[in-house]
Inverse folding.
């Protein structure tokens, strides 16, 4: 007869197949159960780890696989935090970020040191090391931020940036304490530590971005890019470990270094988030839970007292630091709650500190941090992780709801729908990428992809080619969570097919590729584009890519005078601002002073997170000065005008010649602004426009 004794004799499970199955079952069912209980998923992972771990039912042992994947998951959290951070936000909020980081270190250190000596009776050295554990924190709740898409919030930027400050200072305390026991502390110790840290940081922040840009320029395959990004992440972490610093700092700095090359709407970002959320991060959370020993609560009253003191100090001191940051910088109470939620979980640096102290033996033969502190640390990790998850979930939900309620519902916003015309198989990726970058993520309207099949003798082959292009485009957009609509339509000519599709889809913007000239007599834009320009009053974007979109570093925008009076002015400015924001690129606008004033006002009011500069420019016949500033990894965006519109000037007729002369080898975006029907009152003829294109060919 089978008994529980027989079952316990088979535990812990050591078969790799069953170990992985149990972990996957936890990852699958923990969120389902937690949802029904209205508890954050992270709590479920940690509690599940405690139940199945060696201190629970001993179903699984905390073997090397959990140590490996646990460390990978911690690094992954820090890497994603750096990768998703808006660098402009970080620059703009650098003062509150550094201030909160210092406060979140100094306040817990000060309170902890006094209480450790006065209440717990520890020595000054033990008290310093124990207090440093209160000061550090781990972004355990960051997956909640990812789920609510709040990485751009000021409070999140401050909390994430402050993590680097507090953990760096904590790890410096560890290095100093360890050096004191090894009798390494001297003037040279500080010099070597500073030099090593500066050297590794310089390599990560200045060499890694150049490697990433070079790699992404030559390799566009998603799997290859994914492996490369993972590789340099752990290279950065490994370099930090070589100088006796925690690898999580290297992972975070690597995320900042490659930030601009991985747009939030890119397929690579979705792959990184998917793998992290599906495997690495849950493994880390489960491994944290497996360290928790609930029996310590009843095994020793001294352990329970130490744990209670540690938990109270850690939570209260972080709350005081968050409150001080809120008051100093006049922030909202909800922002304080978010900062507090993200900055009170203890895990990575806390574990490093307690293990260092536990393994250091004093001259009297005792451990610097005894068994009570070790047990108290495990309980501290459990309680603070749960508290952090619940607090962050509550704050994130309220911030997301507040942002949705405060968002202005304008006619321009509510009607955005982009249609992409697919013709050349080689331009599918670039056109879809452009539409994803320009698309307002707040919109629910799907992207529309259209291929036109001409009714001629090659129609069947053309239709099959069109289906392949549509499938490729739909796959790219769908993989990043964007809904799509596709249409492969028959037509007697391409232009009429696209114009009818625009009406059927009720699209507000059309994205097409720039015509590839086969002969010198060909029009620069191509006959199809010219027909669309005269026949469609919606925004038309004509795009040519000479370098991968994610490697673009700057956008130069040439704007005609009086462009601010066009009905589609806000639309094209918004598209370019969103594009620059995703690419972490700076925009430079060239226009008449009055036009620049209107652009600046719109950018400051609606696109504050997008850095830009304005330069006066009025003579379009002298583009050489601008062309000299355009590097191979820059994009030139030219806002032009249809004939008989407010911003049209006769000199725009020479634009094709100028673009061919100065920007033939550069990525180019030509924008015809939305007229919202005004073109009906002044309809230029195809003959007139065509003659211009032919004349300037």
């Amino acid at each position: 007869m089978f008994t529980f004794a027989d079952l316990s004799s088979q535990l812990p499970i050591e078969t790799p197949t069953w170990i992985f199955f149990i972990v996957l079952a936890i990852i699958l069912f923990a969120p389902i159960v937690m949802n029904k209980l209205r508890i954050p998923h992270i709590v479920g992972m940690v509690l599940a780890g405690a139940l199945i771990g060696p201190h629970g039912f001993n179903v699984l042992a905390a073997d090397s696989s959990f140590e490996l994947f646990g460390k990978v998951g911690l690094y992954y959290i820090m890497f994603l935090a750096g990768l998703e951070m808006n660098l402009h936000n970080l620059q703009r909020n650098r003062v509150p970020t550094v201030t909160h980081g210092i406060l979140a270190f100094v306040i817990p250190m000060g309170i902890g040191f006094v209480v450790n000596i006065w209440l717990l009776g520890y020595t000054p050295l033990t008290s310093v090391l124990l207090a440093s554990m209160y000061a550090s924190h781990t972004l355990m709740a960051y997956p909640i931020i990812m789920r609510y898409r709040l990485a751009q919030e000021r409070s999140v930027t401050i909390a994430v940036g402050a993590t680097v400050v507090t953990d760096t200072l904590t790890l410096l305390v560890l290095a100093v304490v360890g050096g004191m026991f090894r009798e390494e502390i001297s003037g040279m110790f500080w010099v070597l530590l500073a030099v090593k840290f500066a050297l590794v940081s310089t390599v990560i922040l200045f060499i890694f971005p150049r490697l990433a840009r070079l790699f992404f320029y030559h390799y566009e395959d998603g799997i290859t890019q994914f492996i490369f990004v993972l590789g340099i992440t752990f290279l950065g972490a490994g370099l930090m470990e070589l100088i006796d610093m925690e690898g999580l700092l290297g992972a975070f700095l690597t995320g900042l270094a490659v930030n601009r090359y991985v747009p939030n709407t890119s397929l690579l970002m979705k792959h990184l988030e998917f793998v992290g959320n599906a495997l690495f991060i849950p493994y880390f959370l489960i491994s944290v839970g497996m360290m928790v020993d609930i029996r310590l609560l009843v095994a020793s009253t001294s352990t329970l007292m130490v744990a209670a003191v540690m938990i109270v100090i850690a939570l209260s001191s972080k709350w005081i630091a968050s409150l001080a940051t809120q008051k100093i910088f006049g922030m909202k109470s909800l922002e304080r709650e978010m900062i507090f939620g993200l900055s009170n979980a203890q895990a990575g640096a806390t574990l490093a500190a307690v293990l260092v102290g536990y393994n250091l033996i004093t001259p009297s033969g005792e451990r610097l941090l005894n068994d009570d502190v070790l047990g108290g640390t495990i309980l501290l990790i459990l309680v603070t992780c749960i508290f952090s998850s619940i607090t962050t979930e509550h704050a994130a939900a309220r911030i997301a709801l507040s942002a949705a309620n405060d968002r202005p519902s304008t006619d321009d916003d509510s009607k955005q729908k982009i249609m992409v015309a697919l013709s050349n198989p080689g331009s599918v990726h670039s056109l879809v990428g452009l539409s994803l970058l320009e698309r307002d993520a707040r919109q629910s309207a799907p992207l529309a992809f259209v291929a036109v099949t001409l009714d001629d003798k090659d129609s069947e082959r053309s239709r099959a080619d069109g289906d392949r292009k549509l499938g490729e485009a739909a796959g790219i957009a769908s993989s990043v969570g964007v809904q799509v609509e596709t249409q492969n339509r028959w037509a007697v000519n391409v232009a009429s097919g696209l114009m009818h599709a625009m009406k059927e889809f009720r699209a507000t913007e059309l994205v097409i590729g720039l015509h590839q000239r086969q002969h010198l007599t060909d029009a620069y834009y191509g006959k199809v584009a010219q027909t669309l320009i005269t026949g469609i009053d919606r925004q038309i974007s004509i795009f040519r890519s000479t370098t991968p979109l994610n490697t673009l570093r700057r956008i130069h925008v040439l704007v005609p005078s009086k462009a601010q009076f066009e009905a589609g002015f806000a639309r094209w400015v918004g598209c370019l601002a969103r594009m620059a924001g995703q690419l972490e690129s700076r925009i430079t606008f060239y226009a008449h002073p009055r036009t620049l004033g209107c652009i600046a006002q719109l950018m400051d009011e609606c696109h504050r997170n997008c850095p830009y500069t304005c330069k006066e420019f009025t003579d379009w016949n002298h583009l050489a000065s601008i062309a000299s500033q355009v590097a191979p990894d820059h994009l030139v965006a030219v806002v032009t005008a249809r004939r008989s519109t407010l911003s049209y000037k006769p000199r725009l007729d020479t634009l094709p010649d100028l673009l061919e002369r100065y920007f033939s080898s550069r990525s180019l975006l030509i924008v015809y602004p939305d007229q919202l029907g005004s073109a009906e009152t002044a309809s230029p003829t195809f003959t007139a426009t065509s003659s211009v294109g032919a004349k300037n060919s």
